[in-house]
Amino acid sequence: MVKMASTEEQDRKIVLEFCHLLEKSKQLFNGLRDLPQYGHRQWQAYFGRTFDVYTKLWKFQQQHRLVLDSKYEPEDQLEWSLVLEEIKGFIKAESAVAVLHADTNPIVLSHRLSPLTTPPCERTPHMTLSLQEILIVGSACEQAKFSELTMDMFRMLQTLEREPTDAMHPMIGHPMAHGGPHDASPAASRMPYGVPGSKGYVENGDRRTMRDNPHKYLLYKPSLSQLMVFLSSGFKELPPGGALLLYMSADGCFSTTKHPQDYGYELGGLATSVKRDAVDSGLSVRGKSSAGYKEPHCLYPGDLYPYTRRPLFIIIDSDNSFVFQHIPRYFGQPLVILMSPQDIPANYQDLQHHGSLFTLFLHSPMTAMCYICNVGDVPIHHWERCQSYVDRFVTEASRLVTRCRMDEIEQGIGYIDSSYVQFFGDDFLRTLILRFVFCDVALRLHRGFRGRHQRPRCEPPLPGPELLEHPSLAHIVLQLATALDVRGHFVEGPEGD
Known InterPro entries for this protein (predicted)? Predict the structure, then answer.
């Protein structure tokens, strides 16, 4: 009897401690909301304290799960049940292609950047910029999400993260692990760090530390004013030699102007949130037109003009993406815009709930290739073999980009805009550029993507015969299709070895 009472008392203390930690974590989290929403140096210390308490809370509930499960079912149990269902749906949608172990169990692959997966690059003195600030905006309706993180936001977030150094391990199917004429080794990949104004260099009072990953803002369906505030904050935080990346996944706002003259504001843009003012709009969202005023919660290309004062890399994933190709370079700074296809074949449109195809190509080209060929699962050994073709493509495309620049200087042919070259020295931006090239080549060869609106665009344009239409790149994609046993999805041509 005494022993039972002692156990009950111990369980009661565990529950009380858990409630204390839970209440403390809530207070700290709510306190974060009172801090300025921009300027990460202002709230980094507070965020650290909150993160520590949440970590302690998580460990505590893991250690005492049996006791806590048996004793303040929470008051918000229904809300947690809904969150759990949302997580299950998100995980199911995220695994667009299942990579199977020998025992047919699915394998979770990392798509973060590592020294073994960093695309090779023959560096030149013109490659001067590093990615420092990132805005990831998710405003697409009817897309799988968890809390305030859409599938597109999640994939782009993973793409723009480095594999933690303590978790570094050989990645499957990457010939870069065997050496070669590139600077993707761990030592070489970290050489620029620690230099003022270079990637990873952070000053915090008298302390100087290295940051592997650029700073990021994640915005879910923000109002236009919120978007501009965070964009301005990222712009303000840029160090010398730093670049700002804006990624937007959003539905299009379509103009009804018959004869547009101002490309900055009369071609439409992107819907940033579902909020609507009590005034008529001069735009149509998803084909619903009205007359009168311009949409207040729409990001127009002209809204980005002031931010071209600094190096700016833009990725637009939308059914109205092409309107952003007219942004001028008033200030002569590097500017690159990658734009998704504005339309996809009807048989793929129902799958948009699982995330955009364009973002999937930027996140994992191999997964996207399987996706457009209706390959639902791949054994791990076969995935490794096919992934080697993607790596060969990236290596060859990187060589062609550098070659185009050298040819331009020496002979005036194969022109590639200097913006690409300046961004190409950054691991993340180089990865995005080369995966964009893979997406363009793969969709151009695929029988299902025939219209020009069903392929991506970029500004400035990348050279055709010297890069996007180069026979060696097409050859590798067709070899990959043959290895996947989906050659029939692609145009006729030599299959190669």
Answer: SCAI (IPR022709)
